[in-house]
Amino acid sequence: MPTLYHSAQSRSVRPRWLLEEIGAPYELVSMNLQAGDQRKPEYLKINPNGAVPALVDGDVALFESAAICQYLADKFPAKRLAPPVGTPARGYYYQWIHFAMSALEPPLLTIFLHTAMKPEAERIPQLVPPARDQLRAALAVLDQALTGRTFLVGDDLTAADVMVASTLAWAQMLGLLDAGTPATAAYLGRLMGRPAFQRAMAA
Questions:
Q1: pLDDT-derived band at 96, boundaries 50, 70, 90
Q2: Of 10, 105, 39, 26, which Cα lies nearest the Cα of 71?
Q3: pLDDT for 179
Q4: Could you tell me whether strands 54-57 and 27-30 are parallel, antiparallel, or unpaired per DSSP bridges?
Q5: Residues 72, 78, 81, 84: what is their CA dihedral angle, to the nearest 10 degrees?
Q6: pLDDT in tens, 62-92
Q7: Other C-beta atoms within 10 Å of 58: how many?
Q8: Is it the case that residue 203 has pLDDT exceeding 80?
Q9: Is a pLDDT exceeding 90 seen at residue 9?
Q10: Under DSSP, is residue 196 helix (H, G, I), strand (E, B) or coil?
């Protein structure tokens, strides 16, 4: 049974959501990041980055949310959370997973750090406008791709949707989604309405 090391409102929501979609038993270990659970020696043996998520599945110990989601989607092929290897759909699946990590998340992180997370004296306000422009451009690309579609790849939810929609949920929380991306907003609303997503967001 896989064990997921998790903290609410962190990147570990992604693999937790995927595990809920899969529906197979798993163990959830809640980490108190404020108390420093992620820096304890026993946890650093699992994830030397001192961050969440981490997944332990038998002899496999993984970190990085995208890698964990791809691993889980492949481990449970009957759930159809990843297109078959070697198909064009598999290529697009990889594309959107990497898009979440390289195009959506970096500007969001910059905006979050320099408007809310860092102490005010450590914030660099000049970084925020270009990050907003970068995010706006990425959302325009995504909105075009989602127009007329229910999911990013094919007719089924995949781990790519989990990666992208969980990042969009963060953008929405920061008030960074606007009326200029209606297909994206509708897509996020549909996915946030899924029972597995709502279970994953529970404390």
A1: very high
A2: 26
A3: 85
A4: unpaired
A5: 100
A6: 999 999 999 999 999 999 999 999 999 999 9
A7: 8
A8: no
A9: no
A10: helix
Q: Radius of gyration (Cα) for the chain, nearest Å?
A: 17
Residues with Cβ within 8 Å of 114's Cβ and at least 6 positions away in sequence, in order, are 123, 124, 125, 127, 128, 131
Q: Give the mean pLDDT of the chain.
A: 96
Those residues whose C-beta lies under 8 Å from the C-beta of residue 76, and which sit 6 or more positions away, are: 22, 24
> Cα dist. 62→4, 28, 69, 143, 189 in Å?
10, 15, 10, 32, 30
Sole residue written with tokens 């650093």: 44
Residue 175 DSSP symbol: T
Q: Which residue's entry shows tokens 């820096």?
A: 39
Using the Cα atoms of residue 89, residue 91, residue 92 and residue 97 in order, give the sign of their dihedral.
positive
Dist CA 90 CA 83 (whole Å): 5
Number of residues that make up the chain: 203
The whole model's pTM is what? Answer: 0.96
- What pLDDT was estimated at residue 149? 97
C-alpha 7/C-alpha 67 separation (Å) is: 17
Q: What's the token pair of residue 127?
A: 């970084």
CB atoms within 10 A of CB 190: 15
